[in-house]
Amino acid sequence: MSVYNPHNKQPFLGGEVALVGAGPGDPDLLTIQAYRFITQAEVAIYDRLVSKEIMALLPEDCDCIYVGKKQAEHRVPQDGINRLLVEHAQAGKKVLRLKGGDPFVFGRGGEEALYALNHGIACHIVPGMTAASACTSYVGIPLTHRQTAQSCTFITGHVKDCGELDLPWHTLSDSKQTIVFYMGVKSVPVISQQLAKAGRDKNTPAALIYKGTTPEQRVFRSTLQSLEATVINENIKPPTLIVIGDVVGIFDDVMLSNIGYLTPA
Questions:
Q1: Of the listed 63, 69, 174, 201, which one is catalytic?
Q2: Rounded to two decimals, what is the model's pTM?
Q3: Are 59 and 73 part of one and the same domain?
Q4: Which of 33, 48, 171, 188 has the most neighbouring CB atoms within 10 Å?
């Protein structure tokens, strides 16, 4: 029988950067590897979606630098974040780049790793549970389900600088495909219109998951046609995950708590 031994892993050394996925918010969803790096950090450069419970795991003497982003509102531009990582690593620190979700899923982790490597800084890549899989599981929505959905697509809902959400909409018309939009609340009108235009049934089930896996989690059930009205009527704000597909209704006949716990009706 093999026993997990963290000492068999590459150590976190001064002068290195660790890109660590903190998951969607619930600290129970952290990986053992993420916990190991978090508890060794000397400098933590963190995003706004990292929960306070996870921040509390950092060493007391860790220097914490907030670089959170909102749509069209960046406290520190990406170029500035890249430079912070390198500057603190060059000063000999163990630099933790702490991100909500997974650093390589809409997290710009690839950009940050490339910048560090191009400046001679070694990087640890620590995956985290991305919101699409964690938040949907917590509310009883399987991303795939036999004979209902054989594929799943993750899409960023951020519009470009010109205000356009430019996507290959024709590839999203399959009724057996689940679609998950990150950061898409402000783009809901375009999403609804373009998916319907591409051929998705207007009655396709949809769900909006606000602050999934956290104590503030709320779930709003809707359809593709009524998605925009649901956002307006319920005053739904970011961070909210949007799920579109027949899988949304798989567990309609069971009771569901807010912590991923299903019970018979």
A1: 69
A2: 0.91
A3: yes
A4: 188
